[in-house]
Amino acid sequence: MANTRTEPEAGTPVLGGNELDFGPGLSRLLVQTWKSLAKGDPVSPGEVERIARDLGVEQTEADGFLRRMSERDASDNIVGVMGLSLNDHPHQFTIDGVALRTWCAGDILFLPAMLGGAAEIESKSPLTGEIIRLTVSPDGIVTTDPAGLALSVPAEDPGQLTTAELAAIWGTFCHHIFFFSSVDEGQRWAADRDNIAIHPVEDAYQFVTAMWRKVRSYADQDLTSGKDQS
To answer: Any idea which residues carry the catalytic annotation?
Structure first.
């Protein structure tokens, strides 16, 4: 039987989870690639090389790391990476006037802190099709419409993202993480799905941002004192 409690039993998502840790260099590489993509244009292989070189990350390691988690166009430019995308995904994400998309609803909650700006978000409930809107700043959720939003969270260990390939990230996480107008609506959607929990969006925000806390801390460190290697 599917578990849809807000206080899940063993084996279902528990707010807290594991922190993702790609190491200092690769974490900074990811954040700088997000920031480059957030300007609204694909990130070229040459730009990735420049970012890696500036951060002191070995080129082969940088390419292998980003290639596992990025969408590419025909010219091998990055058009999406670990949640943020120029491609057509369900969740609209506008920051500094640039219209982007995110792979899943959870990405919406941590990316503003990584990018250093407030984002306007528009998504849809997969159950009712209702339009859901949020404003999320680097410091937290600013507004929600409607009030009482909830987020679905799969049971899989988020630490799997450290080594996951793109298809596995989408299949294991992104295709199961959505916004709902209420916890009750989310529970109805999850009723015939195994190992999905529904949490109020404020609690989900704490869980998701905690997962990415270490990556953000690496990115926030002063690089002028020396470049850590990943």
So the answer is: 104, 107, 174
